[in-house]
Amino acid sequence: MSNELTDKAFWANYWETKKGLAFTVPPTYTFHKLLRQAVSENNATSAIELGGFPGYYAIFLKKYLGLKTTLFDFYVHQPVLKEVLQANQLEEKDIKVIEGDLFQYQPKEQYDLVLSCGLIEHFNDTKDIIARHLPFLKPGGTLFITLPNFTGVNGWVQRQYDPGNYEKHNISSMNPPLLAEYCKELGLKNVEAYYYGRFSIWLENKAQQTGLVKAFIKMLWLTGKIATRIIPVESKRLSPYIVLQAIK
Length: 248
Fold this sequence. Notes:
Elements lengths: L7 H10 L14 H11 L3 E5 L5 H10 L2 E6 L4 H10 L8 E4 L11 E7 L8 H6 L5 E12 L4 H9 L1 H4 L9 H10 L3 E8 L14 H20 L10 E7 L1
Parallel strand pairs: 1-2, 1-4, 2-3, 4-5
Antiparallel strand pairs: 5-7, 6-7
């Protein structure tokens, strides 16, 4: 069985048909508090975002934290990338771009921070794809990985209304204790893995849904938001993300 749940054709179609990609990345972008803390604690000056096209996190780290950043992906749509950079008052020279295969590429340099957001869950062998991050990471550097949590309410929404997208994800990878165990087996230190964020749900194919489905999703989203505002919890059932952090 192939390790990859997606291929280049899938991502080419995904990015070429997705709307609204060129926006200004805000200083409060998702995971901003965690990233600021990781950079501060490790005095990081360089970072690489793996599988991160169109590079929103590389842009965030460059624009707001002043890091020297690199974007690595096996599919890079240059016109889209140019639009995203322009929307953030950046030029092509401001962020280094490497288009390559993570399973074949040999890193020519290492970084203080190696991150991927929404990458590892697209592969069957979770431990192996985590290990692929490590050659890019300096000794003492920080590994920062996030992935969606489809084991709770958001996963139910995906299964019901976007099964094609759901099938592109390795649900068994969405297990914080297992992720932590893999990192320890790989020799990493100070390992943390946890559910992150208060309630949220989304659909990649929202525009194709009926008005009735859109109304139901909006009601469900609002109900969950109100509930977790009253009782702020981060949990398997309600949190939209999983975060994995470790030191090499």
